[in-house]
């Protein structure tokens, strides 16, 4: 009975996979806007970050996860009104042994600790411009209702039984470990103690009667789900890893702890002597947010993209889909996995004292600057090392010099005295390359620039769809460089507005460069919202002209009217991104080997 319903659900999930914008047809003419058909495809989207433990203050890794989700969500909203049905949740994971112990160590009640640290996360996310629609705390009453209901469903389907669990438990990671995943570490007095091979955190031997979930029944359904949804886990190497894990035996999973040992959690319904395992409790947050167990949750599930760090892949790619299948629901549509930020080549940890405080970074590098840095440098497939010189170098070169310099070159009074979007001259820059004539001024490289910028929005959308935001930013940055090359090649500062020969070409050079800047500003909105707003406002682009659906690059080149031509630029508001001072004291110095 169970098996039939599982198979049916897997089939349905396969059919409704998150689509990639594979078919990019221009709506009106050959520019790089996204088509309405693409927008309509997946009307609803629900993005989530992990909910973060409140045992310690947030660091740049937590902010990074939230930024990835934020950028994905903002990019989707920009695609047009039909994609506005977007939900984005984050929050704090407040139950479990880890929090119970951290509160005791800090001399606080668990509630005091949770309130305090959850507030830190909320403040950080607000400061960093995280546009979440929901912030969940697992200590909320609505969550308790959802978890206990979910538990009841698993129980009624015969998936929970009572048994004795004996083995290792790691409180820091809140997980059970087989003997093969435990090693011994030398202690300070020549003794040794058992630790998790993966995380290095201490483990302790546990033997108690718990409720056990029949996880072993789900090995094949999980394999089928992953094989028929090759994009369910992105990037691909993580998908592969999970399939490898599933090649091995999948033991049943203990999903409760004795309340005398773990009291800080949600009691098992009908059995107060047991507390629900914190990971089962935590994972259900994704359902609580969308209204579970009320039927309204069905309009958002399973249109979900979970953004997670690689450390919690097993919980999201094995336990969670198995729980969902067990409860008669579809697995999430997509799990987007990213690697970790290290500091000077080392894992960030309180005990090493190398935790980078994200609020200091936001103050130091500005909100947009630091958002840009993390999203431009963070690569999902590999760990990325943090140090301050890297931030300063990147932001000075890409935001201050390349982008800011380009804007300045095209809008400065000395070059653009009328402070307008000048006219584009089709004789100077005919749409057909290779034409010769006395007034033709465009060169082969200029046509290459037009092609690059025209196809940029689609390229960027593909990178977002493939969870490669850093590649989207790399592509924008490369086009910014190309545009600077274009301006440099034609040196508008050497052309004369008063000369009837120069003026049409001078206007055209500025028009093309401003059009490129308009595309860059529009595409940068998900990553650097304030900087993009400043840039687009300076160009005189109104709020209703900033969607990707309306992003038609250089329409005059394609023989269409341009609404910006002849328009006054917006007011001058100073440097787009002031250069950062190299001589500051560093928080984290470069690590040289
Ligand atoms: O695991 N680099 O919470 P957590 C990048 N409560 N990202 C990092 C990182 C780093 N160095 N360190 C942490 C938990 N992260 C559970 C989650 S979800 C139902 C429950 C990010 O506070 C990354 O997203 O330990 C990682 O998966 C998450 O924070 C772990 O946060």
Automatic annotation (TrEMBL):
One of its GO terms (biological process) is methionyl-tRNA aminoacylation. It catalyses: tRNA(Met) + L-methionine + ATP = L-methionyl-tRNA(Met) + AMP + diphosphate. InterPro entries: Anticodon_Met (IPR041872), Met-tRNA_synth (IPR014758), Met-tRNA_synth_2 (IPR023457), Methionyl/Leucyl_tRNA_Synth (IPR015413), MetRS_core (IPR033911), Rossmann-like_a/b/a_fold (IPR014729), tRNAsynth_Ia_anticodon-bd (IPR009080). Its EC number is 6.1.1.10. SUPFAM superfamilies: Anticodon-binding domain of a subclass of class I aminoacyl-tRNA synthetases, Nucleotidylyl transferase. Signal peptide: none annotated. It is an enzyme of class 6 (ligase). The keyword Mitochondrion applies. Keywords: Aminoacyl-tRNA synthetase, ATP-binding, Ligase, Mitochondrion, Nucleotide-binding, Protein biosynthesis, Transit peptide. GO terms for molecular function: ATP binding; methionine-tRNA ligase activity. Residues 444-542 form the Methionyl-tRNA synthetase anticodon-binding domain. It comes from the Eukaryota. Residues 46-410 form the Methionyl/Leucyl tRNA synthetase domain. It holds the Pfam family tRNA-synt_1g. It is found in: Mitochondrion matrix. GO terms for cellular component: mitochondrial matrix. Belongs to the class-I aminoacyl-tRNA synthetase family. This is Methionine--tRNA ligase, mitochondrial.
């Amino acid at each position: 009975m169970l098996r039939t319903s599982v198979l049916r659900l897997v089939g349905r999930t396969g059919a409704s996979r998150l689509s990639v914008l594979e078919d990019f047809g221009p709506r009106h003419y050959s520019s790089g806007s996204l088509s309405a058909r693409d927008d309509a495809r997946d009307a609803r989207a629900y993005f989530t970050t992990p909910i973060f433990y409140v045992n310690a203050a947030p660091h740049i890794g937590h902010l990074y996860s939230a930024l990835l989700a934020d950028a994905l969500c903002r990019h989707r909203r920009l695609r047009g009104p039909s994609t506005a049905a977007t939900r984005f949740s984050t929050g704090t994971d407040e139950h479990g042994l880890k929090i119970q112990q951290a509160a005791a160590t800090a001399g606080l009640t668990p509630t005091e600790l949770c309130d305090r640290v959850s507030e830190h996360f909320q403040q950080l996310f607000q400061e960093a411009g995280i546009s979440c629609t929901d912030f969940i705390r697992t200590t909320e009453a609505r969550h308790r209702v959802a978890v206990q209901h979910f538990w009841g469903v698993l129980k009624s389907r015969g998936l929970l039984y009572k048994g004795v669990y004996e083995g290792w438990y790691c409180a820091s990671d809140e997980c059970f470990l087989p003997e093969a995943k435990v090693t011994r570490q030398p202690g300070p007095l020549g003794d040794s103690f058992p630790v998790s091979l993966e995380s290095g955190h201490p483990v302790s031997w546990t033997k108690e009667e718990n409720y056990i979930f029949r996880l072993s029944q789900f090995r094949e359904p999980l394999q089928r789900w992953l094989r028929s949804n090759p994009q369910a886990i992105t990037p691909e190497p993580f998908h592969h890893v999970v399939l490898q894990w599933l090649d091995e035996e999948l033991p049943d999973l203990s999903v409760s702890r004795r309340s005398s040992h773990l009291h800080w959690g949600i009691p098992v319904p009908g059995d107060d002597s047991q507390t629900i395992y914190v990971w089962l409790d935590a994972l259900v947050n994704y359902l609580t947010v969308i209204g579970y167990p009320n039927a309204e949750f069905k309009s958002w599930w399973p249109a979900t993209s979970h953004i997670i760090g690689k450390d919690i892949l097993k919980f999201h790619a094995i336990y969670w889909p198995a729980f969902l299948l067990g409860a008669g629901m579809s697995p999430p549509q997509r799990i987007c996995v990213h690697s970790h930020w290290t500091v000077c080549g080392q894992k960030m940890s309180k005990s090493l004292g190398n935790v980078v405080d994200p609020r200091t970074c936001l103050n130091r590098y500005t909100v947009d600057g630091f958002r840009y840095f993390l999203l431009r440098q963070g690569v999902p497939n590999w760990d990325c090392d943090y140090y301050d010189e890297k931030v300063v170098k990147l932001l000075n070169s890409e935001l201050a010099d390349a982008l800011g310099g380009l804007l300045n070159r095209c809008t400065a009074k000395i070059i653009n005295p009328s402070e307008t979007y000048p006219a584009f001259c089709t004789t100077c820059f005919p749409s057909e390359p290779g034409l010769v004539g006395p007034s033709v001024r465009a060169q082969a490289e200029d046509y290459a620039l037009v092609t690059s910028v025209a196809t940029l929005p689609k390229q960027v959308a593909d990178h977002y769809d493939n969870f490669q935001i850093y590649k989207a930013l790399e592509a924008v940055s490369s086009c910014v460089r190309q545009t600077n090359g274009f301006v440099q090649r034609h040196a508008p500062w050497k052309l004369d507005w008063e000369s009837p020969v120069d003026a049409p070409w001078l206007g055209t050079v500025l028009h093309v460069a401003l059009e490129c800047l308009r595309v860059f500003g529009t595409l940068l909105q998900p990553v650097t919202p304030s900087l993009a707003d400043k840039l687009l406002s300076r160009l005189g682009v109104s709020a209703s002209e900033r969607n990707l659906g309306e992003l038609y690059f250089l329409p005059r080149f394609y023989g269409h009217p341009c609404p910006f031509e002849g328009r006054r630029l917006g007011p001058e508001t100073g440097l787009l991104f002031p250069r950062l001072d190299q001589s500051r004291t560093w928080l984290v110095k470069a690590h040289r080997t």
